[in-house]
Write a structure and sequence with these properties.
The protein has about 210 residues and is α/β, with parallel strands linked by helices. It has one domain: Aldolase class I (TIM Barrel), CATH 3.20.20. It has eleven helices and eight strands. It has an eight-stranded parallel barrel with strand order 1-2-3-4-5-6-7-8, surrounded by seven helices. Helix 1 packs parallel to helix 3 and helix 4 crosses helix 5. The longest helix is centred in the C-terminal third of the chain and has 14 residues. It binds SN-glycerol-3-phosphate. SN-glycerol-3-phosphate binds next to helix 7. SN-glycerol-3-phosphate (G3P) binds next to helix 7.
Length: about 210
């Protein structure tokens, strides 16, 4: 499973990239609003640190405007992927932009039908938001499971990005159902490395090493 970092924070991106496990980055307007840097400059910096896909969201609402905005955003770097929210205007834009060779991640996916339509329109990725479904007592991972089954039934090559991840068990479940990608906040990634028994074990080994005759 590929790991994307779900943040626009350059410090976190550089740190996680140094761990050697980051395959891409996803941003959205909310994540970008937390950063005290000009949007385009920040995206270009992220694209210099991460060679894989860097996802940037289109905020226009009419297909014509989404297409224009998407074409401009795609010029920022070779590895830009456009995030376009699922809606009728979004589908029209996905069709055109994908036809021009620009990769699109259809975002804010909350149903299997939305994912199917996005894939048929030409999206390279779909992003089901599982945490937000869990928040309202719907099984987010069931949605991921269904999308994977549908894409597999028809040989659709669109990749599934599990998004809105809240904790490490979401990542485990994403991997168990065979998701292509999990996009993970830095705080969750950090928790994935840690285990109290590892800490206790390391402490004990260091203590015992000091007693070893050398
Ligand atoms: O990439 C966007 C998505 O992961 C949003 O997560 O926590 O705002 O539901 P959240």
């Amino acid at each position: 499973m590929k790991i994307f970092l779900d943040t626009a924070n350059l410090k976190q991106i550089k740190e996680a990239a140094s761990w050697g496990i980051v395959d891409g980055v996803t941003t959205n307007p909310t994540l970008l609003s937390k950063e005290d840097q000009k949007f385009e400059e920040l995206i270009k910096k992220i694209c210099r640190v991460i060679s894989g896909p860097v996802n940037v969201e289109c905020v226009s609402t009419k297909s014509k405007d989404i297409i224009e905005e998407g074409r401009e955003l795609a010029k920022l770097a070779d590895n830009i992927v456009l995030k376009i929210p699922i809606c009728v205007e979004g589908l029209k834009a996905i069709k055109v932009l994908s036809g021009e060779g620009i990769q699109v991640n259809t975002t804010l996916i909350f149903s299997p039908t939305q994912a199917l339509l996005a894939a048929k329109a030409g999206a390279r990725y779909v992003s089901p938001f599982i945490g937000r479904l869990d928040d309202i007592s719907h099984e987010g991972m069931d949605l991921v499971d269904k999308i994977i089954a549908i894409f597999s039934n028809y040989g659709l090559e669109t990749e599934v990005i599990v998004a809105s991840i809240r904790h490490p068990l979401h990542v485990v479940d994403a991997a168990l159902v065979g998701a292509d990608i999990a996009t993970i906040p830095f705080v969750v990634l950090d928790k994935m490395v840690k285990h109290p028994l590892t800490d206790i074990g390391m402490e004990q080994f260091l203590k015992d090493w000091s007693k070893v005759k050398r």
